[in-house]
């Protein structure tokens, strides 16, 4: 590989990384600002541009009675919803996936023949493959979710 | 296995599918034939009056539809090109491969609405860092959110940021699962990197590419949260998309019957156009 190609490759990757990370950095930086330094002018670096304050973070820890924000209940809600939804889709998806892979359904064959996109098995397998390398434990769940999606 | 065991396994899923998919569609069709609004909230029957109104007297819907087509096609093309480039780059030997792969996936894992709020402060015209940094380079402040043309591109930027990782994920998975033999053959024949890409990698990736593009097109044509938070369809109606217009008609003005008409028409158009797009892409990219 030529030097130019390597240079362009790393340039592009660095550029994209900055683009991806920038909003997060901005959010983190803003979380330490007080009202004044958000609303008067653009500031970036703590201590240099503005005096950092932990007020925003303190509100998270305070109890709602003392003027804080309740973050426990919303968190519990999202965990509950996620778990329930996954459970239901795993059960239904497993049953349906088993039936679809074990037996043949004439109606389904017709449907697959009708939309002859050559992608279904490939896409499924490759997606699972990659997900499995990132987090192995959720691979199985994803498999069933994908199956339930496609059926 | 002559008894219908197989249906016992299939039925739970099928019933849920009917309950959450088929029934709402039929209900929407029925609703679209009624004049349900805030004055007469009832399921009366007014025939195809709503459809006549849509096709003769509602340019705003068609404008929002063409705007949506522009936005979704542009974002998906950008996502595909960038996602493919990124996947190609971290596919083979590169330093910190695992680090980059994870970093590139981070936007997909975040909540679109919250990230869009951050993007809105990011693009804020007087208090956002983008205009400030550009000002440092001597560029005049750009009206990211209040110029009718630039606002569209701001939406595109945010969408590309949010969903390129998905494209990247699918394409990288595809690249990693490619067989090695064609590449070996190409190397033995002494193919240049460019030719290798055009004649080996790209054709092998075509099925996965089509799948990824179609999935993203379906997702992108439902774009609503980004527009809602970033610009609320504004300035004027410059970034209003179909789903946002349907939301305004249905849940702000409570013209439920008419909103159902819009939704159903939209569904039919999307099914037809996506089928055509899938066929055309298959024709173009897979040469038998």
Structure description:
Chain A has 151 residues and is mainly alpha-helical. Chain A has a domain at 72-150. Chain A contains 7 helices and no strands. Chain A has helices spanning 3-31, 35-39, 55-61, 72-102, 106-114, 120-134, 139-150. The longest helix of chain A has 31 residues, at 72-102. The two termini of chain A are 44 Å apart. Mean pLDDT of chain A is 68; it is low at 110-151. With 288 residues, chain B is mainly α. Chain B has a single domain, classed as Orthogonal Bundle (MetI-like fold), CATH 1.10.3720. Chain B contains 12 helices and no strands. The longest helix of chain B is centred in the N-terminal third of the chain and has 31 residues, at 59-89. Chain B is globular, with a radius of gyration of 23 Å. The model of chain B has no long low-confidence stretch (mean pLDDT 85).
Question: What labels would you give this structure?
Answer:
heterodimer; B: 288 residues; mainly alpha; MetI-like fold; 12 helices; 0% strand
Q: Can you summarize this structure?
A:
The complex is a heterodimer of chains A (151) and B (288). Chain A has 151 residues and is mainly α.
CATH superfamily of chain B: MetI-like
Helical content band of chain A: over 70%
Helix/strand-derived class of chain B?
mainly alpha
The major sheet of chain A is characterized as: none
Low-confidence stretches of chain A: 110-151
Fraction of residues in helix of chain B: over 70%
- Tell me the overall shape of chain B: globular
Helix tally of chain A?
7
Distance between the termini of chain B: 39 Å
Q: What is the CATH top level name of chain B?
A: Mainly Alpha
